[in-house]
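If it is no trouble, might I ask you for a protein's amino acid sequence along with its backbone structure tokens?
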Amino acid sequence: MEHIILFDLDGTLTDPKEGITKSVQHSLRAYGIEEPDLEALCPFIGPPLTESFMEFYGFSEADARAAIPHFHEYFVGRGIFENRPYEGIHDMLEGLCRDGFTLAVATSKPEVFAEQILEHFGLRRYFKLVGGADMEEKRVKKGEVIAWTLKRLGVDPEKTPVIMVGDRRHDVAGAKENGLLCAGVLFGYGSREELLEAGVDYLAESVEKLGEILRLWGKGQRQSHRNA
């Protein structure tokens, strides 16, 4: 039976910290906000941008949407490749493909950018499909992106085993909305507490451990997240 693994991108496959935080910094300047501390902008990594501008800087929805083109001004020119795959990701993905898993990406990043990033870092070849947000962020919440990705794959998760892998609570929530299990990674930007509170099914502290968890899941062996 085919087993499908959906991967988040930012904070799961690659570390986009520099590019995303500098792009947010650039967009905030358009509103007269100076934020010299890039660490303070790390919460923007993962969730939809509109949601983050509203939550962390009190933007109205209209202003948050208007900030996105300013974000893209920096991101498209430089930030998109101020990024790096996590150590061991290539080997893990190659091994999962060799073991017969079908891999796809489900990210709240615009699909066009996700494709470029994966190609640039030599990761695209591992994935059957890349599902992402649209540029207008009309399809951006993780549950919507996962549903879109499953539809394009032609997969019914009630008939085919599917698991989501991500680093933030949004990944867990999106998985649950679609009836999927979720493996959370602790080498990204979400904490253990955040992921457990969201109801994650598995936790992996390293890329190597993630590969082990996914192989056990593929064999139908459930492992307690407390031992992950």
In short: The chain has a mean pLDDT of 94.
